[in-house]
Amino acid sequence: MADRLSQVSGHISNTHSRGLLAGEVAIITGAGQGIGKSCAVLFAKEGAKVVISDIDEKRLSDVTKEIQASGGDVLAVAGDVGADDFPKKIVDATVQKYGKINHIVNNAGFTFDKMLHTTPDDAFDIIQKIHVRSPFRLIRQAAPYFRLKGDKRENRCIVNVSSTTGLHGNVGQANYAAAKSAVIGLTKTIAKEWGPFGVRANTVAFGLIHTRLTASKEAGATIEIDGKKVALGVPGAQRPTGEVAKQNPDAYPLIPLRRGGSTDEAASAVLFLVSPLASYVSGHTLEVTGGAGI
């Protein structure tokens, strides 16, 4: 046990060729910013060869340069995860360059909030398409590189990003709640079907992580859907972050830690799930909430 702990400690302190994910290949969607970007940067520091995707080519290019500047190995594949040809495009590009796939982090997504009784079909359907159908299609496309017979010792894991909204529901997010709940069922099914091949599958359910989706809607962040601009964020969410939040314990009374999480903290939770540290964790939903919802 002491030797194993020493080995793990050594992994954590090293980067690139000797990190927790040394030599492994990880596909991360929605990696142009926020949690996806933090995952990509962290995975690369831990030795993974990262294949990053985002619909925003400029942001994706910036993340690529950042990872390369720190000595990481990265391949950028821009595109819309909801496009019919996307799964084959990114899987083929990954295998052509790296020859294998160890991990998939299905992180790409957005919110399209409306009260249930005013939610039109298209606002419901697009959220299911991006948050459920797209991860399903990418995982299915990558199946030949996960359902491997014989040697099962190589670390392989799929992480699907969910939300506390998928666990508890949320006002104004019937579409998002339905999708993020479905992701949990999808993940458990993968764990049961692919477990015999040595593949793990887990979900991470985030609480308040400070990203453009949880920032104030008044900040003006938008995403274009079928030619229409959709506002992102939460109305009136003018809340302190960072050190200001830590010094103001009344800022987030429903979160025991009294603050929201950073994207780097979110990425660390995902790293744990894909790493050898979680080698016997599969079919699990890890709640990363600062204690909220307990």
UniProtKB/TrEMBL annotation:
Keywords: NADP, Oxidoreductase. SUPFAM superfamilies: NAD(P)-binding Rossmann-fold domains (SSF51735). InterPro entries: NAD(P)-bd_dom_sf, Sc_DH/Rdtase_CS, SDR_fam. It comes from the Eukaryota. Pfam families: adh_short (PF00106), adh_short_C2 (PF13561). GO terms for biological process: fatty acid biosynthetic process. GO terms for molecular function: oxidoreductase activity, acting on the CH-OH group of donors, NAD or NADP as acceptor; quinone binding. Gene3D superfamilies: NAD(P)-binding Rossmann-like Domain. PANTHER family: 3-OXOACYL-[ACYL-CARRIER-PROTEIN] REDUCTASE, SHORT-CHAIN DEHYDROGENASES/REDUCTASES FAMILY MEMBER. Belongs to the short-chain dehydrogenases/reductases (SDR) family. This is Uncharacterized protein. It comes from Leucocoprinus leucothites.
